[in-house]
Structure formats: structure tokens, C-alpha cells
Design brief:
Shape: globular
Number of strands: 18
Strand content: 25-35%
Oligomer: single chain
Radius of gyration: 20 Å
Helix content: 25-40%
Largest sheet: 7 strands, mixed
Structural class: alpha/beta
Number of helices: 11
Distance between the termini: 20 Å
């Protein structure tokens, strides 16, 4: 059996190389998995472009992972061949936030981290094998295709986003921005039986949201009024929740106007560079509007996502699958445009 594996290694911005690195060996108390698919997140695209700061080099990234168990110690409930989703964010388990259950805000996520064979491991999903804590491994129904299992992590982020709201069955929801993460917000809203409005200036994304995801109303914020559309969808009240998945300050300000009484505005996206917003104090005060941020996901959010996958049809959210050898070329393309959704690395190709 080979002692090495293929991995995509970031050496610097605009410098990702496919290399042979040491393959992990079975470790006591750890689960050794073979990666089958890894989604390419905006995070990895920002590492490549140089926009993502605080990233140590050289590093093996990739955190949206589907895998099969290669080896596991007895008594952990795993056996070779199990299909699994992975939670690959570093969580120290001992800082103030980890202890309180807010492990998505681990204080040591960038300062400590994991290393393997001289490389920093930021997920590790761009390598063929990973040795991982069993608490970060979640069985998935064997019927779920591997490329869909790779969506467990981003779906977990959406579940975390929804946890900041009071959205319930039959509510009205607005999603600002219809990229992959905005699209996943639409999918979960439809699962709740909500009426959904999507605002995005790109006609291809609007069509995708309506025709492929079932959005009830789509609007172009450059030529239409999303605030009036939100009122029309909700009998004049304003929607129960607005999820801002586009990192544009004006979108966040507009979201507050779209929100009804006792509603939530969730700032899902980050902005690069950082932006400041202006808000109507009295509108928030008198209407009891809650404004919240959301960052990443907790370990339990990934567990929920893995369990939910068999009940969802997410095929439209994977646009292309590529072999590992094409990863450098794919990253050089920049952010996906139009209706293109997740691109997934296929380790079986």
C-alpha cells in the first residue's frame, strides 16, 4: 500500500500545487477516511486570490467533504465503507466559546490549528485521506450521492443561520443574493413551507432561483423595489426573516426595510473590504426587528445537515465535478458567475 497521497497544497496566493504528501496512518482514537468529494467554497477561492487573511502556508484546505471510512478503532460505531460527512473546522474544545457550545467561534481557530507532514491542515479535504476525531464524523444514508454529501457543511452553515431567527412553518422569507449559500437558504425555506422572495441583479440567478429552487417571487433590485415586493408577499406586513447573503452594505440596509414586525435580519455574508451600514434606529426599535450575524456552523449543525440530506433534492446545487488535477485551473477562474453553483472535486475521477 502506498505511503503517499495526492493533495492540493496552497503555498501562497495564486500558488496551489498538486503534490505527493505522506498518507495518514491509522491512529488510536481517530478515524481514517478516504475522501471521495470536496466542494470548493468561496473560502478556498479567497485563499487563492489573496483576499482571505490569517491563513498559514503551506496548507491543505478543503472543508466541504464527503468520505468513506477506511479504518476506525473498535467501539466507535464506524466500520470500513461507511459513507460519512465531515466537520473539519478546527475547534480547540477548551476556550471560552468552545466550552459554552459556540465552537464555531473557537479562539484558536487560526493561531493553533492542526499540522500534517509539515503542512497546516485547514480542513484537509484537498487531500485523498484524513485522520480525524470521531466526534467530527457523521454517518450519511448510503443512498445519498457523494457530491451531495459534500454539501453537508454548507447546509450546516444555513441551519446555523436559521437558528438566529424565529422562522416557522408557513412564514415569509426574503433571500438577498442567489449564489450557492443564498440558494441553500431558499431550499431550507421551502422545506419550512415558507413563501420565498429572492433579490438578485443577475437574471440567470433569478431564473435559477425560481425555476430550479421554487422561489415564489424574484426581483431585480436595480430596476424593481424589493421592499414593496416583500410587503406584497406578506399582505403588507414585511417578511418574517431576511437573509443577506450578498456582501453589499446597501443590501443590508434595504433588508431592514423589507423586514416586518418582530422579524429577523441575518447578515450571512462577509464584506471584503469591511463595510459600515446606516440603520433606521426607530424602525428597529418600534418594530422589534432583530439584527444578527452568523458565522460558519457548530458541530451539531453539521450533524443535523447530514441527517437531513436524504429529505432534500440538492442536485441543482452542484454544477460541475472536476478531478483534483484541475483544481489549480478552477481556482484561477475566480468566483462562480451567473447560475453556476458549487464545483466539486471528484477524487474518484
Amino acid at each position: 500500500m502506498s505511503k503517499t497521497m495526492k493533495a492540493g497544497v496552497f503555498h501562497a496566493a495564486h500558488d496551489l500545487r498538486i503534490a505527493d504528501v505522506a498518507k495518514p496512518e491509522p491512529e488510536e482514537g481517530k478515524v481514517l477516511v478516504r475522501v471521495t468529494r470536496t466542494g470548493i467554497c468561496t473560502f478556498e477561492r479567497r485563499i487563492y486570490s489573496g483576499a482571505q487573511k490569517h491563513v498559514p502556508f503551506p496548507s491543505i484546505a478543503g472543508h466541504e467533504v464527503a468520505a468513506v471510512v477506511e479504518w476506525a478503532p473498535d467501539g466507535l460505531g464506524f466500520k470500513p465503507g461507511d459513507k460519512v460527512a465531515m466537520d473539519l473546522v478546527y475547534r480547540c474544545g477548551r476556550c471560552y466559546y468552545c466550552v459554552r457550545g459556540f465552537d464555531n467561534q473557537c479562539e484558536r481557530i487560526y493561531s493553533e490549528g492542526l499540522k500534517w507532514d509539515g503542512y497546516h491542515v485547514i480542513g484537509g479535504g484537498f487531500g485523498e485521506y484524513i485522520s480525524v476525531d470521531p466526534a467530527k464524523v457523521f454517518k450519511v444514508d448510503p443512498s445519498v450521492p457523494d457530491h451531495i454529501v459534500a454539501l453537508s457543511e454548507p447546509l450546516g452553515c444555513i441551519i446555523h443561520s436559521y437558528s438566529k431567527t424565529t422562522v416557522t412553518l408557513g412564514d415569509t422569507v426574503a433571500v438577498v443574493g442567489a449564489g450557492t449559500m443564498g440558494s441553500l437558504h431558499v431550499v431550507l425555506a421551502k422545506l419550512y413551507g415558507c413563501k420565498v422572495l429572492v433579490s438578485d441583479p443577475d437574471p440567470a440567478r433569478r431564473e435559477f432561483a425560481k425555476e430550479r429552487l421554487g422561489a415564489d417571487v424574484v426581483v431585480d433590485p436595480t430596476s424593481q423595489d424589493p421592499v414593496q415586493a416583500a410587503k406584497d408577499l406578506s399582505d403588507g406586513r414585511g417578511v418574517n426573516a431576511v437573509f443577506v447573503t450578498a456582501g453589499v452594505a446597501a443590501a443590508a440596509e434595504q433588508a431592514v426595510e423589507m423586514a416586518g414586525k418582530y422579524s429577523s435580519v441575518v447578515l450571512y455574508a462577509s464584506t471584503h473590504p469591511p463595510a459600515k451600514i446606516t440603520l433606521d434606529w426607530n424602525r428597529i426599535h418600534y418594530n422589534e426587528i432583530r439584527i444578527d450575524g452568523t458565522e460558519s456552523r457548530t458541530r451539531d449543525d453539521v450533524r443535523k445537515a447530514a441527517a437531513l440530506l436524504p429529505q432534500l433534492n440538492l442536485e441543482a446545487l452542484v454544477s460541475r465535478q472536476i478531478p483534483l488535477s484541475e483544481l489549480p485551473t478552477e481556482l484561477s477562474r475566480g468566483l462562480p458567475a451567473g447560475a453556476e453553483q458549487r464545483v466539486v472535486v471528484d477524487f474518484d475521477a
